[in-house]
Each structure stands twice: as C-alpha cells, then as structure tokens.
C-alpha cells in the first residue's frame, strides 16, 4: 500500500529514510525503550545513544561543543524557538531582519510578530534571488533583536552568504540565526569558525525521519526556551526525548557527511544534466535562482505560459514526483512568494517546477525525466491561451482579458 | 535474569504491532503529507485514519485533534495559546500538575498573569469546590497524576469552571490508554495526549480541542494542522499514535484488568514489608500505578539497588530525576520532605507478569532487610 514506485525528485520537500538509518532506529523502538531522563539502566543506555547522536550532529555542523546541539521536533520548532528566544532575551529590541524568500516557518511567525508590534524588515532579492548586502548593512543596528536568513532557499536552492552576514551582524552586536534546513548535508558547514549564533536543521530533509530537528545554539548566546517543563536538553527544550529519531538523526548526519563529496559531484551532475537536457528540448523555459551559487541538488525551471500544477499532475501520472514551489504552499495556485520576490513574470512564475535530487537518484532516472517533460509541456501549451501555433501569442496579458457581452 | 521494566508511566515499550504500522512510513513511502503528488496523497489518507483513531480513543471528533510533538508541546501550546486571546488574569493549575503545565503557566507571569495553585487533599485529589480567583481565565487539572496515579474529578471541576465562564484544560497524558477517557463528557475545552505513555512512539502527542475556542499556534509555519501547528507532519509517528490508540481502545478492559491484578498481588506483598507505605491507597487510582514511601531510605538509593538487580522503577516524575528534590506532588499532599525523598514509583504495563512483581518484591525485601540503614540513608 504505502510503497510508491517511481522517480522521486522532491527531496527538498522530504526525503526517504535511509534503510541503514531505519536499522539504527529499530533497537530504540523495541529493546532500548527507557526514558533517557530516568535513573535506571534502561534509560541510561538510551542516554548514551542520545549523546552519541549529539556528537554526530556536532561533527557535521562543525560546532565547537556538543552541548550546543539541542534536539527539537522539527525545523519549524527550531526556527520559532530561535526567533522567540531572541525577542524574549532582549525585550528592548523590537526589530527583526529577515528576507522575502524565507520558508513559511519564518515568514508566518514574522507576520504574527508584526501584529504583536514588532518591526519586520524583509530584505529584497534581485531577479536571481540574490540579496543586497548594502540594504542589509543599513538596517543593522541596536534596535534589531535578531537576523534570520536562510542558508539555502528551498525552492531555488540559492545560497545566501550567511557566514558573511553573521559577521556583519556580530560586528554590530546583533544575534544571527540561519534556517539551514535545506543546506545541512548538502554543503559543508563549519560553525565554530563562523559568527552564526543559532541554526535550524530538520531531519527529514537528510534521510532521517520526520519529527526530529535541531537547534544549534552557540555557547554563551542568551536563550529562552519555547517548550518548558522537564529538564531535558539541559532545560532548553522540555519533552521526553524522542530517542529513536534522535539516534536516526545522528546516523543521518554521519552519512550526510560521508556523502558530501558525492552530493557535490554525482548528484550535482544529475541536476546539471537534467537542466541541460530540458533546456535543450523545451523552448521558452529557463532556470530560476542564482545558478552560480546554488545547492547541488536543486533545479527550479520556469516553463512559460503554462500552469505548474498541470505539469506536476501529468508528471505524476508517469510516476515522477516533483513540486511546484514549496510543498506547504502548493495547495494554492498563487505563484510562490519566492518567484514573485524575484520578479519572475507571471506568465513564467505560474509554471515553475522544482526538481530536487538526493543520493538515491540515478542518471537513468534523469534521462527518463528529460524524455517525459517536453511532450507534457507541448501538450499543455496547445491548451494554453497564451500560446499560439509555434510560440507565445503577441500580447499574452490580453489573452485572458474577459469579454463582457 | 531478564531485566524487569516497571517504569511505564515514564515511557512504555513500543507495541510490536504499532512498530509494524509505522515501518512502511519509515521505509519508502516518503511523501510529505502536504505535497500534491501521489506519495503525498497516501500520506494524507494515513494521517486522516490516525486522526480518526486518536479521536475515537477519547470520544472526540477527528477535527478536534491537533497533532503535536508530545504532551509537553501540547501543554505549552494550550496554556500559552489560550492566554494569548485574553487580557491578563489568573491561570489556575493544580499543585500536582506535570512540570510542563506548571512551567508554561509560570511563563505567563511576564505578561502580567497571576498563577493560582489549586490545593489537593492528603490523597492528592484536588480540593473542591475550587476557590478560584474572580479573574480566572483558564484552569488546568490533570486527569490522572503521573506519580501517584490518583484520578482527578475533572468533570465536576469542569462544570464549576464553565459556570464561571473560564476555560478548562485537562492533561490526560497518563489517563489515555489506561482508563476510559471521554473528551465530550469531561467538560474540558482542551485535553493533552501523549502517545508514548500507551505503547505508541515518543515524539508525538495531541491537543484535543473544542473548536469554538481560540488557540494561538505555538509553532507558526506552513499551514499544517489547519494552521494551528507548523512543521512537516511526522507521518510515521502519527500513524503509530493512531495504531496505539486503536489498540488501547480495543484492549482497554483487558489491560486494565491485567494491571489491576498485578497491582493487587504487588500491594498485598508490599504491605508485608515493614517501613513500606502505599500512598493514596484507597483513592481512585490508575490500575497500574503504585507510589510508596520506604521509611528510612532514600528513593534513589533503593532505585540504584533495584537497577543493579535489573529492575527499573522511578522515584517520581522521570523528568525530575536529574535533581534530587522531594516531589512537588507528594509535598502538596502534605507528606514530609523526608518521607517524600524515600518515594518509589512502580508503574506496571501490559507486558509485565506476576514473575516481574515477585522479582521486585524479593529485591525490595532483600534491599530493605539486608543493608544497614545508615549506609542507605546517606
Ligand atoms: C502528566 C504528564 N503530562 C505530560 C507529560 C509530557 O509528555 P511528553 O513526554 O510526551 O512531552 C508527561 C510525561 O512525561 C506526563 O506524565
Ligand atoms: C527552508 C526550510 N525551513 C524550514 C522548513 C520546515 O521544516 P520542518 O518541516 O521540519 O518543520 C522547511 C521544510 O519544510 C524548509 O525547507
């Protein structure tokens, strides 16, 4: 029932749990079920496993101390915890700097905080999704409680210069958080040699299960917990430790570290081949985002004059899973906030498809997708009011103009 | 000798059937429930089934179930999330609540709230009628206490709370799966559940809520759980939660009878050991929980002795075990700090046997009789 055959190119939404990781988890479901906060031997063994996992995560992030790793329930929780902590710890600071292209985990929190009276500065991006560091520099001052900038964008894979931005924030005495949910495991991270104060990651983006995440909290950074109660995670995150998932995340980070070169060579080559193959075969399409500076696994292609949802549906029929925009917003037909922020014309923004790879994809799959896409696009364009015999109509904006009788 | 696990109120072993239900979601079906493609649709359907199963366990409607990462998150969300809709007033919590309720309530103080602690009697039952502050907005009384197992008259309390126009929350983390729980009949507006207390996985729980009430999300995000709880749905754990709930409902009578029987055997033998006193012995309790004091001993010392013999028990709430402080629950019942420090909690589970109980009694008897008290009392 649950087994879904096919080509899975939606790894930025969620990834398959690595079979080796499932194996690693199993004992913690069955034999080693103690509560790690308990005094007895059952709990103690689990406690040791949690400690090992913390070390594994520390290694992948290049954190200086393992105590800087706080296990949470997901990326969203880590994001909320980071921002709300900064606000509570520095009540005199009422401003936040973030970007227009963050994940809803940050943006909807900021929307709520704006209603509560906080001032939210959203840095703009250019047509390639890049930030303007001068705009940023001007906003940095003692009124700002925290800067939260994603390391890599989930839709386009575009990488932001967060290490540099953290240094700039640090120089002005402002806390810096990065949502690295998409970056961790795909590109090298070395937190001990950075000025990043807090970082969020989520297990299910790197072949661990859903429902486990991490907030990295640099030693010495002032902190207020979001989940209060027991003394777990040194009082920084209450709730019985989700031992099996923590162990899984530890293993996942270890494997991600081992596969980092593979990700940046083989996986990248698959991504590049897909783009090149599709661009060569399909007229009027282009890659969005900063192609010079991207995650190795992400391709976001805008197919002009057609609907991304329709493309997805037809791909889906052929057993190919991709996504249009972020999974969370794909229920709506609005072009994604990321595409709008980059000023992608609406005739193209509606037709963006994200293909996101993992180390489980193969070049064979890539070739199948390259074959599948052009006929789908051609078929949909035949139905498109924006598309004529051999190309776009002269004035596509008028093609849909309602006629009143 | 096989290890004996008697700490089921801290966490329970995952039921093999629950694991089986979860495994397909860990091995392969990797759909994000919010995605449109096929894998996502399977995930959505599995989510709906689990929501139904959890709802049925506590007689709620599926739409009233909001999945969270556990009981702690649910408690934090309910207390902070209801307070957000009111001007500051009083939040009243029983003196024996779990730390996640107590600390969440305390955190409201910075917004100008008062925290009222509701007293309990010598059996650990909340005193009624509640002497509620006039500006009480929210009252939180758990359904069953995690340390003593003592059941609280939630329905009666909810009635009083509703008459005053306040909101009622009950933390049913320990009750669900161990006794009949009926959200509708309870009169509570909000209820907390945690799966790992009844053979489900850790890291998943729920808020059950009356939809006519407002609740501010604790985690803002991508619109999951109808916008009330952001974060990609933890599908394997949710499926496990649903399965555990369905099993608990189907096997409730059997499980309760089994624990009841074991507990009777255990308590009969404990009464033979001098210095052992069972707390709230005659009060209505969860069938699986025995809280006792062991005169002249420190709880941790006894626990360590038991642990060396392969027996896992607890000195109270697992979350407190890094700190050796007398339990706030026992102190609230009027037990002296010294006696409270000698407390041992035995919490039985469906997997325990008469042999486990006998092993515990033998070990305890030996520990208490065999070791000079000075050594243990240090
Ligand atoms: C009464 C009670 N409420 C809440 C919790 C917390 O639940 P969780 O461990 O799922 O966060 C527990 C157990 O630790 C509990 O016993
Ligand atoms: C950039 C980014 N941040 C945060 C999240 C949220 O992570 P989670 O689903 O673990 O809460 C996601 C994924 O959904 C993401 O892509």
Keywords:
heterodimer, A: 405 residues, alpha/beta, Aspartate Aminotransferase, domain 2, Aspartate Aminotransferase, domain 1, 2 domains, 7-stranded mixed sheet, 12 strands, globular, disordered C terminus, B: 378 residues, 3-stranded antiparallel sheet, 38% helix, binds pyridoxal-5'-phosphate
Overview of the molecule:
The complex is a heterodimer of chains A (405) and B (378). Residues 326-330 and 400-405 of chain A have low confidence and may be disordered. Chain A has 2 domains: 19-256, Aspartate Aminotransferase, domain 2 (3-Layer(aba) Sandwich), CATH 3.40.640; 260-388, Aspartate Aminotransferase, domain 1 (Alpha-Beta Complex). The longest helix of chain A is centred in the middle third of the chain and has 39 residues, at 243-281. Chain A contains 12 helices and 12 strands. Chain A is an alpha/beta fold and 405 residues long. In chain A, the strands form 3 sheets. A 7-stranded mixed beta sheet of chain A has the order 2-8-7-6-5-3-4, sandwiched between helices. In chain A, strands 9-10-12 form a 3-stranded antiparallel beta sheet. Chain A starts with 6 loop residues before the first strand and ends in a 6-residue tail after the last helix. In chain A, helix 6 (162-171) links the parallel strand 5 (144-148) and strand 6 (175-179). Helix content of chain A is 39%, strand content 13%. Chain B is α/β, with parallel strands linked by helices. Chain B has helices spanning 16-26, 38-57, 71-83, 99-107, 154-163, 183-186, 235-270, 299-308, 328-332, 337-340, 354-370, 373-377, and strands spanning 4-5, 65-68, 90-94, 114-118, 136-140, 167-171, 190-194, 205-209, 276-278, 289-294, 311-312, 343-347. Chain B is globular, with a radius of gyration of 21 Å. Chain B starts with a strand and ends with a helix. The longest helix of chain B is centred in the C-terminal third of the chain and has 36 residues, at 235-270. Chain B has a 7-stranded mixed beta sheet with strand order 2-8-7-6-5-3-4, sandwiched between helices. A 3-stranded antiparallel beta sheet of chain B has the order 9-10-12. Chain B contains 12 helices and 12 strands. In chain B, helix 1 (16-26) packs antiparallel against helix 7 (235-270), helix 2 (38-57) packs parallel to helix 7 (235-270) and helix 7 (235-270) crosses helix 11 (354-370). In chain B, strand 3, helix 4 and strand 4 form a beta-alpha-beta unit. At the A-B interface, helix 1, helix 2, helix 3, helix 4 and helix 7 of A face helix 1, helix 2, helix 3, helix 4 and helix 7 of B. Bound molecules: pyridoxal-5'-phosphate (PLP) (2 copies). One pyridoxal-5'-phosphate binds at residues 70-72, 75, 98, 100, 142, 146, 171, 173-174, 194, 196, 205, 319 of chain B.
């Amino acid at each position: 029932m649950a087994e879904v055959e096919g080509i899975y190119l939606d790894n930025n939404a969620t990834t398959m749990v690595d079979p080796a990781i499932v194996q690693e988890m199993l004992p913690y479901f069955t034999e080693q079920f103690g509560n790690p906060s308990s005094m007895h031997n059952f709990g103690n063994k689990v406690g040791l496993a949690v400690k090992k996992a913390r070390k594994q995560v520390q290694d992948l992030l290049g954190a200086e101390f393992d105590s800087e790793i706080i296990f949470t329930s997901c990326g969203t929780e880590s994001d909320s915890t980071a921002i709300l902590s900064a606000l509570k710890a520095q009540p005199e600071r009422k401003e936040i700097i973030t970007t227009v292209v963050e994940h809803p985990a940050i943006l909807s929190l900021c929307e709520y905080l704006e209603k509560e009276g906080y001032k939210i500065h959203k840095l703009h991006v250019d047509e390639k999704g890049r930030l303007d560091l001068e705009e940023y520099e001007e906003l940095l001052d003692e009124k700002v409680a925290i800067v939260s900038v994603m390391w890599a964008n989930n839709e386009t894979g575009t990488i932001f210069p967060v290490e540099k931005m953290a240094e700039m924030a640090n120089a002005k005495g402002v806390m810096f958080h990065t949502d690295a949910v998409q970056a961790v495991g795909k590109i090298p991270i070395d937190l001990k040699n950075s000025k990043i104060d807090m970082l969020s990651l989520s297990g299910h983006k790197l072949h661990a299960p859903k429902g486990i995440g991490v907030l990295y909290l640099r030693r010495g950074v002032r902190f207020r917990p979001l989940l209060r109660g027991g003394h777990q995670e040194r009082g920084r995150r209450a709730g019985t430790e989700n031992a099996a998932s923590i162990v899984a995340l530890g293993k996942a980070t270890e494997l991600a570290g081992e596969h980092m070169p593979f990700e940046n060579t083989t996986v990248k080559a698959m991504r590049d081949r897909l783009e090149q193959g599709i661009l060569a075969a399909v007229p009027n399409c282009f890659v969005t985002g900063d192609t010079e500076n991207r995650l190795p696994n992400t391709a976001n292609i805008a197919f002009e004059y057609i609907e991304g949802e329709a493309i997805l549906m037809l791909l889906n029929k052929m057993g190919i899973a991709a996504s249009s925009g972020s999974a969370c917003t794909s229920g709506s037909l609005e072009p994604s906030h990321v595409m709008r922020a980059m000023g992608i014309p609406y005739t193209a923004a509606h037709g963006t498809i994200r293909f996101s790879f993992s180390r489980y994809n193969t070049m064979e799959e890539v070739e199948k997708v390259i074959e599948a896409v052009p006929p789908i696009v051609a078929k949909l364009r035949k139905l498109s009011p924006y598309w004529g015999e051999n190309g776009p109509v002269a004035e596509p904006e008028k093609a849909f103009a309602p006629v009143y009788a | 000798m096989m290890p004996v696990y008697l700490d089921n109120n801290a966490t329970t072993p995952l039921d093999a059937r629950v694991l089986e239900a979860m495994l397909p979601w860990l091995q392969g079906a990797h759909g994000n429930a919010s995605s449109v493609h096929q894998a996502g649709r399977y995930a959505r359907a599995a989510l709906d089934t689990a929501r139904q199963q959890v709802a049925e366990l506590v007689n709620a409607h599926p739409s009233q179930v909001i999945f969270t990462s556990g009981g702690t998150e649910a408690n934090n969300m309910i207390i902070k999330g209801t307070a957000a809709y009111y001007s500051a007033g009083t939040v009243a919590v029983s003196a024996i609540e779990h730390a996640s309720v107590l600390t969440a309530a305390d955190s409201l103080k910075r917004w100008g709230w008062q925290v009222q602690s509701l007293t309990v009697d010598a059996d650990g039952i909340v005193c009624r009628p509640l002497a509620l502050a006039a500006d009480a907005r929210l009252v939180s009384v758990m359904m069953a206490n995690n340390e003593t197992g003592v059941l609280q008259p939630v329905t009666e309390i909810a009635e009083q709370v509703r008459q005053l126009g306040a909101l009622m929350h009950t933390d049913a983390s320990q009750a669900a799966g161990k006794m009949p729980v009926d959200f509708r009949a309870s009169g509570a507006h909000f209820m907390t559940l945690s799966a790992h207390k009844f053979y489900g996985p850790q890291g998943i729980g729920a808020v059950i809520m009356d939809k006519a009430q407002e609740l501010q999300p604790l985690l803002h995000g991508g619109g999951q759980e109808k916008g009330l709880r952001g974060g990609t749905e933890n599908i394997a754990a949710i499926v496990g939660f649903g399965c555990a709930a369905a099993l608990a409902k189907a096997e409730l009578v059997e499980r309760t009878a089994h624990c009841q029987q074991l507990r009777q055997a255990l308590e009969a033998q404990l009464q033979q050991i001098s210095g052992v006193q069972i707390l709230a012995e005659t009060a209505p309790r969860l069938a699986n929980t025995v809280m006792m004091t062991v005169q002249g001993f420190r709880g941790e010392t006894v626990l360590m002795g038991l642990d060396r013999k392969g027996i896992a028990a607890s000195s109270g709430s697992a979350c407190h075990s890094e700190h050796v402080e007398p339990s706030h629950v026992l102190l609230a019942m009027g037990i002296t700090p010294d006696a409270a420090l000698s407390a041992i909690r035995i919490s039985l589970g469906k997997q325990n046997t008469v042999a486990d109980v006998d092993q515990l009694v033998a070990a305890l008897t030996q520990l208490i009789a065999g070791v000079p008290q000075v050594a243990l009392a240090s």
